[in-house]
Sequence to fold (279 residues):
Amino acid sequence: MSLKNIKLVATDLDGTFLKNDRSISFENLKALQLLGEKKILRVVATGRNLRKVMEVIPVEVPFDYIVYSSGAGIYNWTDKKHIYHKNINRDTSNLLIEYFRKKDYNFYAFDEAPENHRLWFHRGQQECEEFNLYFSFHNSFSEQLPTNSELKNGLCQFMLIIPEDEEKFASLKTEIEAQSDEIRVIRSSSPVTKGYIWVEVFQSDVSKGHGVSHLCNLLGVNQRETIGIGNDYNDLDLLYFTAFSFLTENAPPELKNKFTPVPSNENDAFAYAVKPLLQ
Fold:
């Protein structure tokens, strides 16, 4: 299958499509517009919730769909309509809340998508600077988790924050996933502070790859007609799904050589990856 037959391009935002200051380069915006002229679908696949996407992507930027919260939801950017979401059910959500409390972890619990910009928090005894910093960015939508009552609805996701430690993450992933078959743990490098891992817990069918796959099925796009561009661990499912997959130069060293390399997000990685489509 040639690159000339591509019908859908999916890109991560932070560290990939966006520059470090969260701006959009002229070359990336131009490439996005030219893709549209060629009737190629332009998809965001991001760990950001939809409200956070709207903070960095102005309404006039010509994307077609947003796969947000690592695939927990899909939003039609043109029609302004929610078309899909997948959440952790109420029983499993309450089970995990109780488990995390007993372990005295610092954690966040996010409301069901598409309202998952709202969240609850639980502070453990061990202080975590990154946990507090994250809270400072989201405190207008945060409240302390009630101690004596169960949630009446499910959740989109949980997030724990740990210092960067491969063995600790692997152990924690195994520990958490053992609590329920309904969940999966995704790793993300903190975009806030270097040296921390975000341990994100989602419903087991949630990933950027699953989200883009679901969108392809809805739109009649064959997997062989897709491109993916990313830069981090939480992009792996996307990059394993898409037929042609590109990894930015600013990706973690251990991910290098797995996918076709492109320049960093500071040097128009997106525009570079899609350039063959525009010739």
Summary: The two ends are 17 Å apart (CA to CA). The chain has two domains: 3-86+207-278, 90-203. The mean pLDDT is 93. The first strand starts at residue 8 and ends at 11.
